[in-house]
Amino acid sequence: MNRALKILVADDASFMRGMLIRILKDEGREIVAEVETGIEAIEFFKKYHPDVVFMDIIMPARLGITAIEAVKKILEIDHAARIVMCSPRGQVSLMQEARDEGARDELLKPYTIQSVRETLQWVMQK
Hints:
CATH class: Alpha Beta
Order of helices and strands: EHEHEHEHEH
Mean pLDDT: 92
Distance between the termini: 20 Å
Structural class: alpha/beta
Largest sheet: 5 strands, parallel
CATH topology: Rossmann fold
CATH architecture: 3-Layer(aba) Sandwich
Number of strands: 5
Low-confidence stretches: none
Number of domains: 1
Shape: globular
Strand content: 15-25%
C-alpha cells in the first residue's frame, strides 16, 4: 500500500467533504483535517503541512475569504503546496483563475474512486 499521504479537505458542504473523505480513507490516505472555510484551511495547513489540499472552488467569501484567496495564502506559506480544486462542471473561469494562482489540478464533482485516485497520482508526480 502507498504511504499514507496527509490530506486536508476544505469544503463548506459537509456532504461533499464526507464523500471525498470516505474515498480518500478507503484509498489508505490520512485525513489530517477537514474544514469548512478558507481561513480554516490556511490555519490547518500551517499546523499540519499536508501533502495535498483538496479545496472546494466555490467556498463563499461570507465565510471569511474565497477559495482563490485561500490558495494564494497557502502558497505564500509554502510555494510548493499541492492544492487540488474541487469543482462542479462549468466552473472554467474560476478554475483558470485558481490555476493562475498556483493550484495544481482540478477534481470534478461528483467524485468517483477512479477520479480521486488518478488526481492524487497526477498531483503527486508534479
